[in-house]
Amino acid sequence: MKDKNYVKLLRQASPYIHAHRGKTFVIAISGDAVLQSNFHSMVHDIALLQSLGMRTVVVHGARPQINKRLALSGIETSFEQHLRITGSEAMLCIKEAVGSTRLAIESQLSMGLPNSPMHGARIRVIGGNFVTAKPLGVRDGVDFQRTGEVRRIDSQAIKRQLDDNSIVLISPIGFSATGESFNLNYEDLAAQVAITLKAEKLILVSDSPGVMNKGSLLRTLSLPQLAELLETSKDVQQISLLGAAAHACQLGVERVHLVSYQQDGALLSELLTRDGSGTLISKDYGEIIRAATIEDVGGILELITPLEDQSVLVKRSRELLEAEIARFTVVVHPEGFIVGCAALYPTADKQIGEVACVATHTDFNGQGIGSRLFDQIEFQARLQRRSSLCVMTTQAAHWFLEKGFVRAEVTDLPANKQSMYNYQRNAGVFYKAI
């Protein structure tokens, strides 16, 4: 990569670095992730986030390590309600597997070889009895024995370590007041840690690139949409991940991200770039629809320039956009970047408003952003006491027809729009009564 590309990437990441500095992130890493050949790269990325001022808690799983240790010992366990029933003998194996997994993570975080990304990092990894657990008990007639659930998180002790610029590493074993230890579900544990710490983000790292629907990655999900997926999903791992995400969102965690350990740099891409790499889950749609301001000009230009280059939209200079910014409405992603825009222009006929510059970021197509944006434009037109809308488009005719527009002629346009019509562009004319 050329130096100028490095500079460009750093500049693009800087707003996210500023926004995330001092914020608390809980990162849940599956046991499978630890076994991957590229796990060291993920550790480097976690170390980088820490060095950029993000307060980091890592909660790890150990399922494949536990399964291997149980198999070596000839111990069989069963599952109920997606949870392992943990007997006393199995608990001994679980302690060994969790302990070795924890040490593997700590050793990676402790690297400092010259010419490596960890050189000079001097990261402190802190663990302890931060999690008080209790037995899950008997559920629907099933005794879960040494399988437990979180009773209390010592948030103040964790925060003291974060204040001291340490990474807190939490394993999926909790201890009771009587000195017993319990096997915990790491996804549920991570969600509870994030809730108790009032973390800004919970990041769930698994083998999936995010939430998939019919082979396509869903970039954003609202809590109601997540609930629908949970009702229909039959994938045990997905149910566990999405259940933890839903629980965290419901109880105050602002954002939950799902990313893949199989994609190199997925963690950094999700947190420090506009497009991200996985799925962002929030309590509502997350996107904010609002009037554009002068600060949005750069984001709008970035959104519409590719469409202008393809002649989908009429070219607008920065100066023209700045002069007309009051006409624009934008859709702002939860991470702060613009994913949609549209404008409502007056015409020579006071009863008619012109819809223009309707654009949605390609990564968010099919998620209803354009429809919600158009609903807002139509609402504004009604407030302005307009009785109809017109639009000129070269490639979105069917979309506008679906919104209730009908085909019209150039001669049907208001006088000022007729005089400006570009016959070489040959855009279709459409009208809608409102």
From TrEMBL:
The keyword Signal does not apply. It is found in: Cytoplasm. GO terms for molecular function: L-glutamate N-acetyltransferase activity. It is an enzyme of class 2 (transferase). Its EC number is 2.3.1.1. SUPFAM superfamilies: Acyl-CoA N-acyltransferases (Nat) (SSF55729), Carbamate kinase-like (SSF53633). Its main location: cytoplasm. Residues 287-428 form the N-acetyltransferase domain. The keyword Plastid does not apply. It catalyses: L-glutamate + acetyl-CoA = N-acetyl-L-glutamate + CoA + H(+). Pathway: Amino-acid biosynthesis; L-arginine biosynthesis; N(2)-acetyl-L-ornithine from L-glutamate: step 1/4. GO terms for biological process: L-arginine biosynthetic process. One of its GO terms (cellular component) is cytoplasm. Keywords: Acyltransferase, Amino-acid biosynthesis, Arginine biosynthesis, Cytoplasm, Transferase. CDD domains: AAK_NAGS-ABP, NAT_SF. In bacteria which possess the bifunctional enzyme ornithine acetyltransferase/N-acetylglutamate synthase (ArgJ), ArgA fulfills an anaplerotic role. Belongs to the acetyltransferase family. ArgA subfamily. This is Amino-acid acetyltransferase. The gene is argA.
